[in-house]
Amino acid sequence: MPPHANTSSGLDLNAVHLQVEGKSLLTIDHVIAEQETLTVMGPSGSGKSSLLNLIAGFLPTSFTVTGDVRLAGRSLLGLPPQARHVGILFQSPLLFPHLSVGENLLVGLRSEALATGSWKLRRERLAARRTTAEQALASVGLDGFFGRDPATLSGGQQTRAALMRLLLSQPKALLLDEPFSSLDTALRGEIRSLTFERAKAASLPVLLVTHDLEDAEAAQGPVIDLGR
Amino acid sequence: MTLRTGKFWVVLPWVVLGLIQLVPLAAGAIGLVLPLAVSPASGPLAPGFSGQGQASAVQLLLAQPGLSKSVWLSLTTGLFATALAFAVVVLLLAGWIGTRTLGMLRRCLGPFLALPHAAAAIGLTFLLTPSGLIFRALSPWATGLDRAPDLTIVQDPAGLSLMLALTAKEIPFLLLMALAALPQTRCEDYLRTAQSLGYGRFKAFICLGLPDLYPHLRLPILAVLAFAASNVDMATILGPTLPASLSVRIVAWMNDPAADLRTAAAAGAGLQGLICAVCILLWLAGERVASTAVKAIAVDGARGRADRVWKVVGLSLTWALFALLSGAIVSIALWSVARGWFFPDLLPGSWTLGSWRKVLLQDTGPLVTTVVLAALSSGLALLLVIWILETMSRRQLHNGLAPRESSALRAMMFFPLILPQVSLLLGIHVWFLILRADGTFFGVLFAHLIFVLPYVYLSMAGPWYRLEPNLLRNAQSLGLSDSHSFLQIKLPMLLRPLLTAFAIGFAVSVAQYLPSLMIGAGRWPTLTTESVALASGGARRPAAVYALLLMVLPACVFILATLIPAAAFRHRRGMRHSR
């Protein structure tokens, strides 16, 4: 086993071992550098989703975990999900259905607290936030979609909006839970390269979970196959 | 010919359903207006009402002292109790969705759900009065009292104890509805998404998860609202007296021999309907405001922390209210066997089974009536519900569709739950008077069926539509006829939910107060009517026995409903966790 290099940046899966009900589920030891994508493949039941849940903070307490998960040098285990700064794209885009597309991006967008300051200041900040969201939409070809109902968007458009919502929340790592599997083959490649390109631009370490070989190839990074 | 009989069998359940669901509504509405609308010349249409026309009925009502206070009480009790119960459920869900704590709470719900409102009210009186269990536990060491203090706690003029009781009693119901609806929503997915975007549990749930869940809760909430604003049995025991809330006064006027007061009761029932309508409109307006506010807060970018405090607040409130209900149950049990029980003593000084002997061996009338009414109304409701579900599913399967619940049917089932019972029953009562069927057993049974049917349907529809449609298609492909498939596949697979639905119907019927009281004309006393009468007359020991039986009877049926499928499927692991 190689010694861990560069442990203070990137997503460090340090000798992570997952057990459930006494049964060993998976072992992984890898540092995902910034701008690198690690692909984890394997059949269902191999623990891929549990690995994502562990990193994102959604693992049920019935699991036993040894090892550590560190992001930019800080251990994530024990932190609540909202304090981890780990963004996750699920299999479906999960845009909040009661908000417009643009409002979904606003939910993601981090900025200074709005509560303080005068009404005028507050209005200016709200306007600035809206402009940021509109620009983010435009950057993925969704100009003018701010007020649209998410339900009226195609699958590809929804995934793009979900990606931007995620990036606006300024994550420090990106987890991809087969987010391309629900898309048409033609669209899949396009959305995939958009996602990788944006993640690279933001210098994020990326963990991709998939059972699609094409996804793994497109990620151009190391691949761990849990099935073997 | 076959086609015609086929059609007949498809249409018939709807006709029967209409008879039970829609005719009472129409009859109730007309029955309410009839005693008012009759002209002075033609005399009273229904016996026992003064025939002086509508104007005078309203005048008679308005002439009642303290009417506006009664109306105000009904409005505030309904709105505050519902809002409080909803708020506690939201706090609890926000803090604890997806945790073991919530699973544990869910397993505790059973006894509180099975506790009828009348029994809860009786138990809370025993618990909260100055001579109740709480003061006994604190006296004399903490309070210094060796005599029960002269305080007004229950029946306080503002109706606070009534609101507290309603809140405590409705939380288990709303929580159950929410937990049952959760798997049908994507609420938990949205919560995870929001959390991974950096949001704390509370902002995530209230602004981003709840909007997905709330539509499933709306009808149960409105049912709670209408119930809380028009409830009679709890208000009789715990509510203020001079004046009482409107629904209690309507029932008192009804039972008054004076024709004038009975006419005023008819007008009052109309007013009660109006009060419930106002409550519902106010709630719906509140929904609008809240939804706008929630959206504005959702998009402001603030991540909202301070989770831990609210988590503790939500859980503590829930446990406190559950503790209150548990204390009520304990108080009932103690009083049912107490002989001498002097004030500061925590436990009775001497015990007796005399009250039990009397109820179980001597005056068995109310007990038998209750059991027969509950078994018949729940059994009939179950038959009807299955009949309707099967005819609808068959048609959908034959058209190549997977069976799906009809939302129209579901909404229709909620009708009798969203209307004030006292108004609906008063209208029906007038018809029974005209048809000279008041005080008959079948009249009472019919009145029970109106309120039992919706609950049986609501508990049956979920499991019915969760049956794997391909399993049924498989049965078809294997050459099983519809009836074979129904008898040999569906019914056995649904044994557990069928029995649960029966038990729920049974419990609902046992808990009914007004149908037995208003349609039975005093000739069919049940455990509920007797316990309320005894409790408001201050006869604590027999009231406690009746109240405890109100809990024990449905509990026995629930236990049977669990044991029978467990025994039947003891060698079938796949049937163990079907709900």
Automatic annotation (TrEMBL), chain A:
Residues 8-226 form the ABC transporter domain. The keyword Nucleotide-binding applies. It comes from the Bacteria. This is ATP-binding cassette domain-containing protein. GO terms for molecular function: ATP binding; ATP hydrolysis activity. Keywords: ATP-binding, Nucleotide-binding, Transport. It comes from Roseibium limicola. SMART domains: AAA. SUPFAM superfamilies: P-loop containing nucleoside triphosphate hydrolases. PROSITE patterns: ABC_TRANSPORTER_2. Pfam families: ABC_tran. Gene3D superfamilies: P-loop containing nucleotide triphosphate hydrolases. InterPro entries: AAA+_ATPase, ABC_SmlMolc_Importer, ABC_transporter-like_ATP-bd, P-loop_NTPase.
